[in-house]
Amino acid sequence: MNRFLRIVLVFSCFELGVLLMILPWSAFWERNFFLQRYPEMIPLLLSPFVRGAVTGLGLLDVAIAAGMLRGRRESSTVA
Asked: Contact, 55 vs 24, CB < 8 A?
């Protein structure tokens, strides 16, 4: 993979992961379009279980970015 594209992909994965870890616990999460438009979703989206699941996805995304930083190279040998 091109080195520049790899850097962009790692940065994007890391940034998305950090956002997914922070946003569910911020005030922005409690005052968004979907909660105003669909009030029946309030119990679901404000549930600690859903917030924890979104945070877990963020942690997974950061772990993927860290794994990509280690720089595993695909082997070019033919078996």
From this structure: yes
